[in-house]
Amino acid sequence: MTENHSPGVRLRAAAAAERPLQVAGVINAYAALLAKRAGFRALYLSGAGVANASFGLPDLGLTTLTQVAEEVRRIVAVTDLPLLVDGDTGWGDGLMVAHTVETLSRAGAAGLHLEDQEQGKRCGHRPGKTLVSTGEMMARIAAAVRGRVDDQFVIMARTDAYAVEGLEAAMARARCYVEAGADMIFAESLGSLEEYRCFAQAVQAPVLANMTEFGQTPLLTVQELGEAGVRLVLYPLSAFRAMSAAALQVYETLRREGTQQRLIEGMQTREELYEILGYHEYERQRDGASAKGE
Ligand SMILES: C[C@](O)(C(=O)O)[C@H](CC(=O)O)C(=O)O
Ligand SMILES: [Mg+2]
Fold first, then answer.
1. Which residues are annotated as part of the binding site for Mg(2+)?
2. Which ligand 1 atom minimizes the distance to the CA of 48?
3. pLDDT in tens, 110-169
4. Angle 65-78/94-107 helices, nearest 10 degrees?
5. What residues does 83 pair with on adjacent strands?
6. Nearest residue (CA) to ligand 1, atom 10
7. Where are the domains of the chain?
8. CA atoms 216, 14, 98, 54: torsion sign
9. Which of 27, 44, 57, 59 to mutate to test the pocket of ligand 1 (most atoms within 8 A of CB)?
10. Domain 7-243 has what CATH class?
């Protein structure tokens, strides 16, 4: 799949080629390069990731479409891997949801997910979530479909209903969302592998399982989820959590010990950084340009 294909086509192709498709959460463009280096075929921009990492804010719907779209542009500028984007609740009503889809698609995203929570959303793994009605969410999805500028752009409907209304209701909602035009379903915060199996069987669309850490869902392997019929497996914040713990340890050690001697071993070297960035290639281009007197 080359850049000639639209991002949506590339995401669909990745999901067809790798079963289930592992989707790497990346908090920024450099993390995208790291995930690509590790062999991932699809990327994810987490709403929590943007809020936490770029703004130091909690995941409570405080970041704007413009801010998320900017992050999307930065990521797709440096990698051709398809990027699924967390669209939260779509930042508004019908017309705004369509605008959100158009904006993220033009920014270079391959697809987005929209959830059935009320506008004042919460993290899917926190208590106190409130949902919109099934009908309202179907209208949200229909508006998203209308906003497509590329018919291969993936509209994924996320249902947060399991934690609020139970498994049966969540599956019934998911079926309605597919009817409304959703290409894929994000089954949020299910409690067991058996529930994912049940869900995947009940829904006529690819189902995504969110393997976020320290949440309500057990950490299941990609093999287990694949056997249960799940088609996409998401790790939204795994690398961010690890980076954050590592960074805190570095800051604390520097303050305590006054030197980074003991930390060097755990650091990415300058050469490794340059390799990931393709630094030398950029430098060659600059040298070539100055040799030509440009
Ligand atoms: C997937 C998610 O929407 C995100 O923004 O990354 C979060 C992840 C998390 O908070 O662990 C969610 O599941 O709500
Ligand atoms: Mg989110």
1. 86, 88
2. 5
3. 999 999 999 989 899 999 999 999 999 999 999 999 999 999 999 999 999 999 999 999
4. 20
5. 43
6. 123
7. 7-243, 263-293
8. positive
9. 59
10. alpha beta
Q: Which ligand is nearest to the CA of 123?
A: 1
Q: For position 289, what pLDDT does the model report?
A: 81
Q: Which pLDDT belongs to residue 4?
A: 82
**What is the predicted ipTM?**
0.99
Q: Does pTM surpass 0.80? A: yes
Candidates 177, 168, 156; CA nearest to 232 is 156
**Other C-beta atoms lying within 10 Å of the C-beta of residue 246:** 13
- The Cα 268–Cα 265 span in angstroms is 8
First to last CA, the chain: 35
Ligand 1 centroid–CA 155 distance in Å is 17
Ligand 1: nearest atom to the Cα of 236: 6
Protein residues whose CB sits closer than 6 Å to any atom of ligand 1 = 46-49, 59, 86, 123-125, 210, 212, 215, 236-237
Asked if residue 82 has a cis previous peptide bond (ω within 30° of 0), the answer is: no
Nearest-angstrom CA–CA distance, 98 and 140: 9
What residue has token string 């805190």? 248
Q: What is the pLDDT of residues 22-77, one digit of tens each?
A: 999 999 999 999 999 999 999 999 999 999 999 999 999 999 999 999 999 999 99
Please check whether residue 187 is in contact with residue 162, taking contact to mean a CB–CB distance below 8 angstroms: yes
